[in-house]
Input
Amino acid sequence: MSPAAPPAGSPSTLKELRDSGHVQKTIKSELRDNLLARMRSGEDRFPGIIGFDDTVLPQMERAILAGHDVVLLGERGQGKTRLIRTLVQLLDEWTPTVAGCEINDHPYDPVCTRCRLLVEEQGDSAPVAWKHRDDRYAEKLATPDVSVGDLIGDVDPIKVAQGRVLGDPETVHYGLVPRTNRGIVAINELPDLAERIQVALLNVLEERDIQVRGYTLRLPLDVMLLASANPEDYTNRGRIITPLKDRFGAEVRTHYPIELEDELNVVTQEALIEWGDDAVSAALPEHLIEVIARFTRHVRESPAVDNRSGVSARFAVAAAETVAASAVRRAALTGEEVAVARVADLPAIVPAVQGKVEFETAEEGREADVLEHLLRRATADTFRSRLGGVELGPLVDMFDEATVVETGELVPATDILESLGTIPGLGKLLTALGIDEGAETPGLAAAGLEFALEGLYLLRRLSKEEIDDKIVYGSR
Output
């Protein structure tokens, strides 16, 4: 949300603005200068963007420095829109406009009829307003029903009814693009825009002006246009018309996180794993975040999944939120003071995210089975990664023919710990899982222990049986 008002003492007239030494810049010069300043200072240029440092971001920086309009191509959930929105932070925090102007004219060089007349009549006394950078960004989801009037403008019948003649440029109601003059315009899913509507953007990208119906009106615009598209849509379901593709200065390809660490960081950054003060908090241990990250990667790589549709980062985020919510539910029903997610909460992921994945036709009816298998595989991989070097023999030895541990979605952490009593090597096990000894709680201890038991079962060193709503681990 933008601040309510510009800093105190900001110029309020054209004369005060000139006396302040303000220099007029185009939108692309403004972005270029601020990007260079951040590069020289070492400041983060694209806050919140993970996994693109060596691939996408250098291309984006070159496009900005070259003054190009950009189309971002990538499967769903790769952060295209988030990346576009970060460019707003490269704008000046406040910029002057002619007060009351619909298209944000600069006081030094107004382009619309109303503002030119205002500056001519009032001269140095012409009023100046200030626009925050958050208000200089507009975003439109391209759908087949979007019209030229929505993007560019059309005749306003109300203005005509008020007595203006059709030939008067003041009868025009400006669309999204001119209303974001001197700002950034983003069009998501550009191929879904009807081809005849895409034609309306040709002048914006090349001649930098707009034309409305049969008017002789030509408004020179100062905008940076960015668009996003799915490569599959780009070539098949919809397409960007060739003249429009040619007018974008740069095409940047995005991708899913390449490294597991980046996948972990995306889940950690995006997942809502803590609620506010009025609700129960849920702790999501590191090893479960890793399971979710590995699970997401396995789903993307699975031959059972249609890789043309991609597996969005929202898949992993929804999975993490579901696991945390399962822990909150347990705490509410059992009276646990602190909600801590455990392995018993992982099965809740499958029904929650199944609709986010498009499977190959041959897998029809087996979707849940495929996801459950991949979830077990992700758990086993995380167990090997985290606890592969930890001696768990003493834990296995605790299970004789009569020893069992009951757990489950609604079994409190204290019940799990009490069923085993003193557990040899528990401290080393928790440390290997990233749980500090000083921060150990019954919930975290149970989460670590249950993860170890599940891993030992997956490696066939313990047995596991599901009875009603409980899970029973025991010796083989």
User: Anything to note?
Assistant: The two ends are 59 Å apart (CA to CA). The domain at 14-253 is CATH 3.40.50.300 (Rossmann fold). Residues 204 and 367 are 46 Å apart (CA to CA). The longest strand covers residues 223-229.
